[in-house]
Design brief:
Layout: E1 4-7, H1 17-33, E2 36-41, H2 51-64, E3 73-74, H3 79-91, E4 95-98, H4 102-114, E5 138-141, E6 148-153, E7 157-162, E8 170-172, H5 180-191, E9 195-199, H6 203-216, E10 222-226, E11 229-232, E12 250-252, H7 262-268, H8 272-281, H9 294-300, E13 311-312, H10 315-328, H11 331-337, H12 344-350, H13 357-363, H14 374-380, H15 386-397, H16 404-417, H17 422-434, H18 442-449, H19 451-464
Parallel strand pairs: 1-2, 2-3, 9-10, 11-13
Antiparallel strand pairs: 4-5, 5-8, 6-7, 11-12
Helix pairs in contact: 1-9, 5-6, 8-10, 11-12, 15-16, 15-19, 16-18
C-alpha cells in the first residue's frame, strides 16, 4: 500500500506551533515510507478565511522545508462533490433531511438542560417522510443506534465508544455547505488518504468519521492522534502562574501563554532545521541524538515513537536547539541567512553566545563603527587611570601587527607597570574599539578589526579628549 498523508489547515489564521508539528509528522511519515504528503486548505468558512492567511501558511511550510506533493486542494471548490455524496447517503437511507427549525432546537435544548440531560438532537425527523414542501432543511447522518465504534489508533491503541453517545450530526447545512466532519471524510476518501495524523482533540471527530467512511463504502484510513502541546500558564500581566508548591502551571498552548505563530520565530532568527528539530521533540523520541537535521528525522521517524503524554513547549529549549544548529552551520551560510557581512572567525566566536540570527547580528555590531560611548566609558574608566589608558592607546597606535596575543600582551605589560588589574584597562579598550561592554575578549576583537580600523577608532578617541 502506498502511504498518503495530508495536512489540512484552515486559513482563518496563520500557521501555529501545533499545526506545524502536525504537518511535520505527516510529512516525515510519508517521506519515511516513500509515500505522498498532500496539502488541503479547508476554506469553507468564507467569512474568516483569507487568501493572505493561506499564502502565509504555505510560506511557513516552505520555510520549514515541508514541501507537499501535487497541487493544493481547496474545499471551497468541492461543493458539488459534497452534495453528491450527501444525496447518495440520503438515497441509501444512511442520512436524512431534517426540517427542525432553530426555534424548535433551542426549545429542545432548554428542556433537556432543565432535566439535567446532555443537550442533543432527538432524531425527530429520522423516520419521517412527511416532508414539508419548499421548507429549508439540513441533512443529518443516521448514526448507528446500537453497538460501539472502535479505532485502532497507531499511537493510543484501541479507542472504543458506544454508538449511543453519538447523535445524528449535520453533514450538510441548510445553505448547502458541508460541515467539517463530512467534508473532511469525503476529501480523505477522494484523495486516497491512508493515514490521518492529527491532534488528540480530534478523537471524537474520528469516531464520527469512521461511521461516515463505512457508510460511503471503501477502506477506512488508519488514525494516529498526537499528544497536546502545553505552554506555561501566565497571568494577565504575563507572569508565570505557579501552584501551591511553587511549580509552573501548564495549559494548552495558545496565544495566552506563548507566541504560537511559526513566522514569529522565523523573524526572531531561528533556523528552519532547528525549528523542525525542536517541533519533532514535542512528542517524538529520537533514539540516538537530540540534534538532528530533517533527513535524519525522516530516516528514523516512526509513529510508534510518539508519546501519548502531552508535550511542553519550552522557549529556552528551542533557543538551545537553535544555537546547536547555528554552531554546526558554516559561517558563510549564517552570514547569508542573517544578511550579515562579517569574517568567518567573528561569526564563529559570536555563536558562542548568540542563540538566534537576530542575536548573532547584535553580537557583531562592534564590527561597524561604534556609536556614542562616552557614558559607558565614564562608567568603566577611572579618572585616575585616564593617563595610563591614553598611554596604552598611543602604544597601540605604534603596534605593527594587531594579533590577539600582541594586543593582550601590551595591555598586560602596562597593567603590570602601573599595578592595575587587567579589566581596568581592558574594559575601556573594549568600549573604545567596539562601543560595547560585552564582546569577545579584547585581543580577538582587535585582531578581527585589523590594524587600520583599530588605528582609526583609537585616533577618534584620542581626538575627543584633545590628545594626539
Amino acid at each position: 500500500m502506498s502511504i498518503i498523508t495530508r495536512f489540512a489547515p484552515s486559513p482563518t489564521g496563520l500557521l501555529h506551533v501545533g499545526g506545524a508539528r502536525t504537518a511535520l509528522f505527516n510529512w516525515a511519515f510519508a517521506r519515511h515510507s516513500g509515500g505522498n504528503f498532500l496539502l488541503r486548505i479547508e476554506d469553507t468558512d468564507r467569512k474568516r478565511s483569507s487568501v493572505a492567511n493561506e499564502h502565509a501558511i504555505c510560506a511557513a511550510l516552505k520555510w520549514l522545508g515541508l514541501i507537499w506533493d501535487d497541487e493544493i486542494i481547496h474545499q471551497s471548490s468541492r461543493k458539488e462533490l459534497y452534495s453528491k455524496c450527501a444525496i447518495q447517503l440520503v438515497e441509501e437511507g444512511k442520512a436524512y433531511r431534517c426540517y427542525a427549525t432553530d426555534e424548535e432546537l433551542a426549545l429542545l435544548r432548554s428542556q433537556q438542560e432543565a432535566k439535567g440531560e446532555k443537550p442533543r438532537y432527538d432524531r425527530r425527523w429520522r423516520e419521517r417522510s412527511d416532508h414539508p414542501p419548499h421548507a429549508p432543511y439540513c441533512v443529518r447522518f443516521a448514526s448507528p443506534l446500537d453497538g460501539e465504534c472502535q479505532i485502532e489508533d497507531l499511537i493510543r491503541g484501541t479507542i472504543t465508544s458506544a454508538n449511543s453517545e453519538l447523535d445524528d450530526l449535520i453533514i450538510m447545512r441548510t445553505d448547502g455547505t458541508a460541515t467539517y466532519n463530512f467534508a473532511a471524510t469525503v476529501d480523505d476518501r477522494q484523495m486516497g488518504v491512508t493515514h490521518v495524523i492529527r491532534g488528540e482533540d480530534h478523537i471524537t471527530n474520528a469516531l464520527r468519521q469512521v461511521h461516515i467512511h463505512k457508510a460511503l463504502g471503501g477502506d477506512v484510513p488508519r488514525f494516529a492522534h498526537l499528544p497536546l502541546i502545553l505552554g506555561g500558564k501566565k497571568d494577565e500581566q504575563g507572569n508565570p502562574v505557579c501552584n501551591e508548591e511553587g511549580k509552573q502551571v501548564y495549559e494548552r498552548l495558545s496565544k495566552r501563554n506563548n507566541t504560537v505563530d511559526i513566522d514569529y520565530y522565523r523573524q526572531l532568527g531561528f533556523l528552519p532545521d532547528a525549528m523542525v528539530n525542536y517541533l519533532a521533540q514535542l512528542g517524538w523520541t529520537q533514539p540516538d541524538s537530540e540534534i538532528y537535521d530533517p533527513d535524519e528525522l525522516v530516516s528514523k521517524f516512526e509513529l510508534t515513537r510518539i508519546n501519548r503524554s502531552a508535550a511542553r513547549f519550552d522557549l529556552g529549549r528551542l533557543r538551545w536547539v537553535n544555537q546547536q544548529h547555528m554552531r554546526k552551520t558554516p559561517p558563510e551560510q549564517l552570514a547569508l541567512q542573517a544578511h550579515l557581512t562579517a569574517p568567518d572567525e567573528a561569526i564563529a566566536i559570536a555563536c558562542e553566545k548568540a542563540h538566534t540570527l537576530v542575536e548573532l547580528v547584535d553580537e557583531l555590531t562592534w564590527l561597524n563603527l561604534p556609536g556614542k560611548y562616552t557614558d559607558l566609558l565614564d562608567e568603566y574608566l577611572n579618572q585616575s587611570d585616564v593617563a595610563v589608558f591614553v598611554e596604552l592607546c598611543q602604544k597601540l597606535l605604534r603596534l605593527e601587527q594587531y594579533s590577539a596575543d600582541n594586543v593582550k600582551t601590551l595591555v598586560k605589560e602596562l597593567c603590570s607597570t602601573h599595578q592595575l588589574k587587567f579589566p581596568r584597562l581592558g574594559m575601556p579598550l573594549r568600549i573604545v574599539l567596539t562601543g560595547k561592554k560585552q564582546t569577545p575578549e579584547v585581543g580577538k576583537v582587535a585582531a578581527l578589526l585589523g590594524s587600520e580600523e583599530c588605528y582609526s577608532r583609537l585616533q577618534t578617541y584620542l581626538s575627543s579628549i584633545g590628545s594626539e
